[in-house]
Amino acid sequence: MAIKQDAQVAEAGAVDGGDQWTEETSTSERALDVLSALARFGLAAMWITSGASKLGKHMTVTQSIEAYEIFTPHWSGLLANLIGPLELAGGLILLLGIKIRPAGWVSFGVLVLFIIGLASAYARGLQIDCGCFGPDPDHTDGDLRWAIIRDVGLIAVTLFMIYRPFKKFALYP
Protein backbone atom coordinates (compact mmCIF):
# COMPACT_ATOMS: atom_id res chain seq x y z
CA MET A 1 0.00 0.00 0.00
CA ALA A 2 2.79 2.45 0.88
CA ILE A 3 4.53 1.66 -2.40
CA LYS A 4 1.35 2.43 -4.31
CA GLN A 5 0.98 5.78 -2.46
CA ASP A 6 4.63 6.68 -3.17
CA ALA A 7 4.07 6.00 -6.88
CA GLN A 8 0.96 8.21 -6.85
CA VAL A 9 2.85 11.01 -5.09
CA ALA A 10 5.66 10.71 -7.64
CA GLU A 11 3.20 10.91 -10.52
CA ALA A 12 1.49 13.93 -8.94
CA GLY A 13 4.87 15.61 -8.51
CA ALA A 14 5.65 15.11 -12.20
CA VAL A 15 2.33 16.72 -13.13
CA ASP A 16 2.72 19.61 -10.64
CA GLY A 17 6.13 20.70 -11.89
CA GLY A 18 8.14 17.89 -10.35
CA ASP A 19 10.61 18.36 -13.20
CA GLN A 20 11.55 21.75 -11.73
CA TRP A 21 12.47 20.08 -8.43
CA THR A 22 14.65 17.61 -10.34
CA GLU A 23 16.38 20.48 -12.14
CA GLU A 24 17.06 22.22 -8.83
CA THR A 25 18.46 19.03 -7.41
CA SER A 26 20.72 18.45 -10.38
CA THR A 27 21.87 22.09 -10.28
CA SER A 28 22.68 21.80 -6.59
CA GLU A 29 24.40 18.48 -7.24
CA ARG A 30 26.50 20.15 -9.94
CA ALA A 31 27.35 22.97 -7.56
CA LEU A 32 28.41 20.45 -4.90
CA ASP A 33 30.48 18.63 -7.54
CA VAL A 34 32.26 21.87 -8.37
CA LEU A 35 32.88 22.67 -4.70
CA SER A 36 34.06 19.13 -4.09
CA ALA A 37 36.44 19.30 -7.05
CA LEU A 38 37.80 22.64 -5.82
CA ALA A 39 38.27 21.16 -2.34
CA ARG A 40 40.08 18.04 -3.56
CA PHE A 41 42.29 19.71 -6.15
CA GLY A 42 42.89 22.75 -3.93
CA LEU A 43 44.06 20.58 -1.06
CA ALA A 44 46.22 18.59 -3.46
CA ALA A 45 47.82 21.81 -4.74
CA MET A 46 48.37 23.05 -1.18
CA TRP A 47 50.11 19.83 -0.08
CA ILE A 48 52.18 19.60 -3.28
CA THR A 49 53.29 23.23 -2.98
CA SER A 50 54.09 22.84 0.69
CA GLY A 51 56.02 19.61 0.20
CA ALA A 52 57.92 20.77 -2.88
CA SER A 53 59.03 23.94 -1.06
CA LYS A 54 60.82 21.79 1.50
CA LEU A 55 62.64 19.40 -0.84
CA GLY A 56 66.39 19.86 -0.92
CA LYS A 57 66.34 22.32 1.99
CA HIS A 58 67.16 19.99 4.86
CA MET A 59 69.05 22.54 6.95
CA THR A 60 66.43 25.30 6.74
CA VAL A 61 63.56 22.86 7.33
CA THR A 62 65.41 21.51 10.37
CA GLN A 63 65.90 25.07 11.66
CA SER A 64 62.22 25.85 11.13
CA ILE A 65 61.21 22.77 13.11
CA GLU A 66 63.73 23.55 15.86
CA ALA A 67 62.29 27.08 16.16
CA TYR A 68 59.11 25.58 17.63
CA GLU A 69 61.19 24.34 20.59
CA ILE A 70 59.25 21.08 20.73
CA PHE A 71 61.70 18.54 19.29
CA THR A 72 65.36 17.89 19.95
CA PRO A 73 67.81 18.70 17.14
CA HIS A 74 68.00 14.98 16.32
CA TRP A 75 64.21 14.64 15.96
CA SER A 76 64.02 17.92 14.07
CA GLY A 77 66.51 16.54 11.55
CA LEU A 78 64.54 13.31 11.15
CA LEU A 79 61.27 15.22 10.67
CA ALA A 80 62.96 17.53 8.15
CA ASN A 81 63.83 14.46 6.06
CA LEU A 82 60.25 13.19 6.16
CA ILE A 83 57.89 16.14 6.12
CA GLY A 84 58.48 17.45 2.57
CA PRO A 85 58.26 14.09 0.79
CA LEU A 86 55.21 13.07 2.85
CA GLU A 87 53.37 16.31 2.09
CA LEU A 88 54.23 15.92 -1.59
CA ALA A 89 53.04 12.30 -1.61
CA GLY A 90 49.80 13.24 0.16
CA GLY A 91 49.12 15.91 -2.43
CA LEU A 92 49.76 13.52 -5.31
CA ILE A 93 47.47 10.91 -3.74
CA LEU A 94 44.67 13.49 -3.54
CA LEU A 95 45.37 14.71 -7.06
CA LEU A 96 45.20 11.19 -8.46
CA GLY A 97 42.15 10.33 -6.37
CA ILE A 98 43.61 7.29 -4.65
CA LYS A 99 41.38 6.38 -1.68
CA ILE A 100 40.08 9.92 -1.36
CA ARG A 101 38.36 9.57 2.02
CA PRO A 102 41.26 7.86 3.82
CA ALA A 103 43.66 10.40 2.27
CA GLY A 104 41.34 13.13 3.57
CA TRP A 105 41.45 11.71 7.09
CA VAL A 106 45.26 11.65 6.97
CA SER A 107 45.21 15.28 5.78
CA PHE A 108 42.84 16.12 8.65
CA GLY A 109 45.15 14.47 11.19
CA VAL A 110 48.25 16.23 9.90
CA LEU A 111 46.49 19.60 9.96
CA VAL A 112 45.40 19.00 13.56
CA LEU A 113 49.01 18.22 14.51
CA PHE A 114 50.19 21.37 12.75
CA ILE A 115 47.59 23.43 14.63
CA ILE A 116 48.76 21.94 17.92
CA GLY A 117 52.35 22.91 17.11
CA LEU A 118 51.35 26.41 16.00
CA ALA A 119 49.15 26.93 19.07
CA SER A 120 51.95 25.74 21.35
CA ALA A 121 54.42 28.20 19.81
CA TYR A 122 51.86 31.01 19.96
CA ALA A 123 50.98 30.27 23.60
CA ARG A 124 54.65 30.42 24.53
CA GLY A 125 55.06 33.78 22.77
CA LEU A 126 57.49 32.53 20.13
CA GLN A 127 58.00 34.90 17.20
CA ILE A 128 58.73 32.43 14.41
CA ASP A 129 57.79 31.77 10.83
CA CYS A 130 55.63 28.66 10.63
CA GLY A 131 57.71 27.23 7.76
CA CYS A 132 54.58 25.92 6.12
CA PHE A 133 55.24 27.04 2.54
CA GLY A 134 58.96 27.34 2.31
CA PRO A 135 61.07 27.39 5.42
CA ASP A 136 62.71 30.70 6.27
CA PRO A 137 64.24 30.58 9.76
CA ASP A 138 65.45 34.20 9.38
CA HIS A 139 61.85 35.35 9.01
CA THR A 140 60.73 35.80 12.61
CA ASP A 141 57.71 38.05 12.35
CA GLY A 142 55.22 35.45 11.14
CA ASP A 143 51.78 35.77 12.65
CA LEU A 144 51.02 32.35 14.07
CA ARG A 145 47.37 33.28 14.69
CA TRP A 146 46.78 33.63 10.94
CA ALA A 147 48.51 30.30 10.32
CA ILE A 148 46.18 28.67 12.87
CA ILE A 149 43.12 30.31 11.29
CA ARG A 150 44.28 29.19 7.83
CA ASP A 151 44.74 25.62 9.02
CA VAL A 152 41.30 25.59 10.67
CA GLY A 153 39.88 26.69 7.31
CA LEU A 154 41.82 23.90 5.60
CA ILE A 155 40.34 21.44 8.09
CA ALA A 156 36.85 22.63 7.11
CA VAL A 157 37.69 22.13 3.43
CA THR A 158 39.14 18.69 4.22
CA LEU A 159 36.03 17.62 6.13
CA PHE A 160 33.84 18.73 3.21
CA MET A 161 36.04 16.71 0.85
CA ILE A 162 35.75 13.68 3.12
CA TYR A 163 31.99 14.09 3.39
CA ARG A 164 31.50 14.51 -0.35
CA PRO A 165 34.58 13.38 -2.30
CA PHE A 166 34.91 14.39 -5.95
CA LYS A 167 35.32 10.99 -7.61
CA LYS A 168 35.67 12.07 -11.23
CA PHE A 169 39.19 11.60 -12.52
CA ALA A 170 39.90 9.39 -9.51
CA LEU A 171 41.96 6.25 -9.90
CA TYR A 172 40.18 4.64 -7.00
CA PRO A 173 37.18 6.21 -5.28
From TrEMBL:
Keywords: Membrane, Transmembrane, Transmembrane helix. The chain crosses the membrane at residues 78-98, 105-124, 144-163. Its main location: membrane. GO terms for biological process: methylamine metabolic process. The keyword Transmembrane helix applies. Residues 1-26 are annotated as: Disordered. Residues 34-163 form the Methylamine utilisation protein MauE domain. InterPro entries: Methylamine_util_MauE (IPR009908). One of its GO terms (cellular component) is membrane. It is a multi-pass membrane protein. It holds the Pfam family MauE. It comes from the Bacteria. It is found in: Membrane. This is DoxX family protein. It comes from Corynebacterium genitalium ATCC 33030.
